[in-house]
Amino acid sequence: MGRFAASTAFHEDWPVAMDKALAALDMPADANLGFVYLTDHYGADVQDLVERLGSLTGIRNWVGTSSVGVIGRAIASQEQPGLSLMVGRLPEGSFRVFSGRDRLPGADTDAIDPPYFAVVHADPATPDMPDLVADMATKVSSGFVTGGLAIARGQAPMIANGALHGGISGVAFTERVAIATRLTQGCCAVGEVRTITACENNIISEIDGRPALDAFLDAAGTSLGQDLRRAARYILPGLGVPGRDDAEFRVRNLIGLDPDNGLIAINDAVEPGQRLRFFRRDADCARADMRRMLAELRDSLEQAPSGALYVACAARGAHMFGDDNVEAAMLEEAFPGLPVAGFFAGGEISHDQLYGYTGVLTLFL
């Protein structure tokens, strides 16, 4: 199976950061795939950056994106200009880089080794992104894709053997590449599973036959419920994913509370009969959920991973934990010495769904 190596470096000048990262990279012999995540400070120079990477490493296939911050082994930052690299040696013909310029065939292709799983990067300016993510999942036989949306303070190009904008790009793998993945939503469940009994578009009027706001206040509790604005930052609705396990919920944001009419509004469409559960999101819950996810994934593995990609919401890091390094340090604790690369995203992709405020871990075994 493949072997991976990763490194992360920070500097205001991208050639200097690249040289530092490559000097620290224990390059596998015959490495043939690279992941590169870079901060938006370098956004205007991405094409030059990718060409230089190819020239210095001899690796033709590069995928990645720009973002507000990068993640590496035991280190992460949304404040410093830098880049995170991971390179690997994979069996010939076991992966394919794709983009709008070089499209991926569907999972029902007649090819000998059809695509099984994909790591994807997406442009947030592209319309109907949740639908595109769901469609992308149909193009791989496992139905699973992972990755995230680019986010930047300026230009936010993605990388798929060159710089590009728009749509979805990335790399797809055949079943010859063993992969494991998990999602952490950074939340603790509050109360029981409920049912939406009346709603319209994204506005919920009744939950279990009661005013929706009453159910929200039950979840918030007496103290937090006295300040609706504050409660809305910590207590969030999770929507059941149709056709999935009863324990699986996609946590969404509250965008409005109407005390006069007992309504709540969220950032997603809802339907009568849909399952709903409230969750509490804060730093303690996020740490606990991250540790749970890492322990469950580690205990499920039959072999040690050789490399990892981690995509975290840009609202996590220092904004949630007070320090950008917290999640990277937890990864290092769970998988000591594991090569890691990743980035802070404007939306995270797991399975066939688009999430927010989450972390998505992909392991190469």
UniProtKB/TrEMBL annotation:
Residues 30-211 form the FIST domain. It is a multi-pass membrane protein. Residues 212-352 form the FIST C-domain domain. This is Histidine kinase. The keyword Cell membrane applies. It comes from the Bacteria. The lineage of its organism: Bacteria, Pseudomonadati, Pseudomonadota, Betaproteobacteria, Nitrosomonadales. Pfam families: FIST, FIST_C. It is found in: Cell membrane. Its main location: membrane. Keywords: Cell membrane, Membrane, Transmembrane, Transmembrane helix. It comes from Methyloversatilis universalis (strain ATCC BAA-1314 / DSM 25237 / JCM 13912 / CCUG 52030 / FAM5). PANTHER family: F-BOX ONLY PROTEIN 22. GO terms for cellular component: plasma membrane.
